[in-house]
Every structure is written in C-alpha cells, then in structure tokens.
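User: Hello! I'm new to structural biology and keep hearing that structure can be predicted from sequence alone. Could you demonstrate with 4-deoxy-L-threo-5-hexosulose-uronate ketol-isomerase? Please show me the input and the output so I can see what each looks like.

Assistant: Of course. The first part below is the input, the amino acid sequence of 4-deoxy-L-threo-5-hexosulose-uronate ketol-isomerase. The second part is the output, the predicted structure written as tokens.
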Amino acid sequence: MEQRHATAPQQVPGMSTAELRRHYLVEDLFAPDEVRAVHSHHDRVVLVGAVPRTGPLPLPAFPELRADRFFDRREAGIVNVGGAGAVTVDGEEHRLAPTACLYVGRGAEKVSFASADADSPAAFYLFSAPAHASHPTVLVEPGGGTVRELGDPLTSNRRTLTQYVHEGGVRSCQVVMGVTALHPGSTWNTMPAHTHERRTEVYLYFGVPEDARVVHLLGEPDETRHLVVADRQVVISPPWSVHSGVGTASYSFVWAMAGENQSFDDMDPHPVTGLR
C-alpha cells in the first residue's frame, strides 16, 4: 500500500510537474492479476485497483491498516471500469457489469474479485473510508441510481451524472460515489469548478481514448496548476483544491468523496472568470 501524505495549499505554487504528479496523480493503480492500493492521509481514504485476469483475486487486509480484515473499520464503494466481472462478499457473488457499483459495509470478512472473460478482464476500482457503523452490501446496476442530466452542448459539457452511494440512495457512513459520462462532443466536466472544505474528492478517469488526455485543474482557485491525465488514472483532490478538467475527447469518470457530510450540493463554486 502506497502512502500519500496530506498537503497544504501553500505547497502547490513551488511544486514542479513531477512533484504535482507524485502528490496528486495515481498513474498505475490497475495492473493485470494484481491488487494495488494507495492510502491518502486526506480523510484517510484508500484507493484500490484490482484486475483479475487468470483467476480470482482476494482483497488483502494490508498491514498498514493495522486490522485483521480490510473492512474491520472501513466501508467502500466499488465500480467496475473494465469487462464484466463479479465481487464475492462473504460467499455471496455479486455480478458487476461495466460501470455497475457495489457498496460493501463495515464488517465484511472475505472479499474477492473475478472476471467473466480473461480476454476482457474486469477492472475494479474500490474507494474506501473509515466507517463508524455497518450498512448492508448493495449492488446497483449501471444507470440504476439517481440520474441527473447536466450541462449544455453549447458549452461542451453535456453530461449524465449517476449518483450511486449518496444520502438519497445507497446508505453509507461517509462514502459518496457515482459515475459521470460526457456526451459525444462534450469535453468539460464539473464547470464551474468548485471546492468543498469538508470533503476530499477523488476522480478516476476512464474511457479515455489511447491517443487522448484529460487536462485536470487543481490547486486553489486563484493559484491553479494542471495535470495531464491518461485512461484509468486517478487524481486526489484535497478539500481546498478545485477539481475540474477538459479532455481532448469525450470520456467518463468515477467521482468519490469522503469527509464531514454526504450532501452532494455542499460545494463552493468558483466562476471560470475568477480562476487564475
């Protein structure tokens, strides 16, 4: 498990491109037949990527968590960004089509990942946060959550936002999670950019064509920097940082948050005219 320590906004102006990427970009979370993990000290979130190709992969406890099992003190949302697959939780198999979401509550003992087809393996993205209570494991099929149609093609940000784990949907302690898909011809996400001092947000970009990239904005609104992001790469946004981006082609992303509350609209917008 890789450790990412918390950072302050005053550090950003002096960072090089390599330093920005080292602190905020996870480039290699997904690898065939591996379970990889990153622990961020921002709200203690854990990011896990699992790509079971030749056989099932168990979710380890990871020594850094100081727990007998991964879910002893944690909960998680899991989204499949690859081919069809399944997640088995304490002996019960949950089949996840691409972009389906599975919430796993505190107290689960054994979790494993499997693909339906080795030639098109599943790619499971797990976003976890500390949990104070137990909630049932729930599977949500693609598009089965709360769907919002946002944006306008005239401003290149027409998009479908699906909320899976949130205060009006699947119950959790603090995880909020969903998927946004840009419509063909649209490239901007989450505009105007915003911050929310009470929560850390993480973006996993997927469906990015091999020859395309997303330019992701980060930092304080009056002191922004950018990351150039490829397919299946992850950006960690501290509570003080904006998180918005534009692609050279349409794409999708999993957004996930953890922190003080679960109110989706608890955010502080920053008009594009005020960004620097």
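User: So the tokens describe the shape?

Assistant: Right, they're a compact way of writing down the 3D structure. Reading them back into a model, for example: The chain has a mean pLDDT of 96.
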